[in-house]
Amino acid sequence: MSSPPAENVAVQVEHVCKTFRLPKEQVSTLKERILHPTRGQRTEALLALRDVSFEVARGEVFGIVGRNGSGKSTLMKCLAGIYRADAGEMWLRGRMAPFIELGVGFNPDLSAHDNVLINAVMLGLTPDQARERYGSIMDFAELHEFAELKLKNYSSGMQVRLAFSVMVHVDADLLLIDEVLAVGDAAFQQKCYDVLDRARSEGKTILLVTHDMEQVQRFCDRALLLDRGRVVAVGHSRSVARQYTQLNFAAPGERESLVRAAALADDDDDVVVIIDAWAQSEAAGRTTVLEPTEASGMATRVRFVSPAADPVFIFSITDEQQRRIMSMSTDRQSFATGSHAAGDEIDVSVGFANHLAPGRYWLSVHVREAVGGQLLAFREDIYSFVVSGPGWGNVVVDLPHGFLLTPAPTMSEASPDER
Question: pTM above 0.70?
Answer without folding.
Answer: no
